[in-house]
Amino acid sequence: MQTGNMMTSNPIRRLTVSLLLFYIATLAIAGQGHRSVVGAQSVPHHNVCSPAAANDDATSSSSSCQDPLLVRGGGSASDDESKISDFLSQKDVRMEKFHVHGWRWHTMSLVRDAGRLKTLAQRSSAKDDCPPIKQAVDYVVGFNMKGLHKIEADLFFPWMRKKLTAVDQTDLAQAFGSVMDQLENDRKKVAKLGESIQRQVSLLCDESKAPVLRTDAVIGIARDAEELENVARTMMETENSLLVPSVAQVVPEGEQKSFNNKVLRNLGILDSRLHLVGMHEAVWESNITEEKEMFKKAIPSIPQRLIPRWKRNLYIPR
Q1: pTM value?
Q2: Pick from 33, 47, 91, 315: CA 20 to 30 A from residue 199's CA?
Q3: How far from 204 is each of 141, 142, 200, 232, CA to CA, in Å?
Q4: pLDDT tens digits in sequence order for the chain, 318 residues long
């Protein structure tokens, strides 16, 4: 009887432990596992469109009372970036105060995967290479890109725009709005390139089509994957140089961590393992010491030990 109870409880215990480990991994991906070396620092925010602000100064211009979600930049990209750079130059910029590293690493993994897809297509021919290219496209576009874009479109970009365009300085708020506009346009461009790649892989794998059309499809996949890689890399550079340090300065650490909880509910426990492996591969392939150290600090030890297993069982087969 005792043996029977043990046999019944062990599967339940294993399932519970597994779900706990997956939750820890998901938590880490969203950046919650990162612990700052400094205390939480609150940076005051000014809601320039709050009713109180409007009533306090009825004679103020419309530019001083704007919905942060609707702020748009009016200057050139270089002017807007210069304004943000000037703002950051006056601050104590430390990555320890940023807590959503999983988003950065997810973008890094998409850049890496798009480059790998480009190389695969460049080395392929239409005759025999439908299965490996289709499998690669399903992962790069259908899983990795769409997972990143879902978080960015539904959560991260609206949240980041709201926080950054709520600063007191109108010209700085407009600069942030302009940079966010460009990022959103680039994200839409990446999505369209992904759709084009999916259409072309369908053509490649359609044996009823003429060989010349299938060959053109392979060439098109390589071309679009290269452009996707370049656009995503430009986005990553803008995010890392301007927006990540700005979020670290403008948004209190506690609010960043609270936002992570919202991200957690949208990542998906099972998919998070695959995303974590892709992030690890991108960070290590970058060979940037600071990124590697940040990854080690941000990701709890148990998921780190499970990455080789997840890579072997989940990532490589994809």
Answers
A1: 0.75
A2: 315
A3: 16, 17, 6, 25
A4: 444 443 344 544 444 444 444 444 444 454 443 333 223 333 333 333 333 333 333 333 333 333 333 333 344 568 999 999 999 998 887 778 888 888 889 999 999 999 999 999 999 877 678 999 999 999 999 999 999 999 999 999 999 999 999 999 999 999 999 999 999 999 999 999 999 999 999 999 999 999 999 999 999 999 999 999 999 999 999 999 999 999 999 999 999 888 876 776 676 667 888 889 999 999 999 999 999 998 998 888 888 899 999 988 888 777
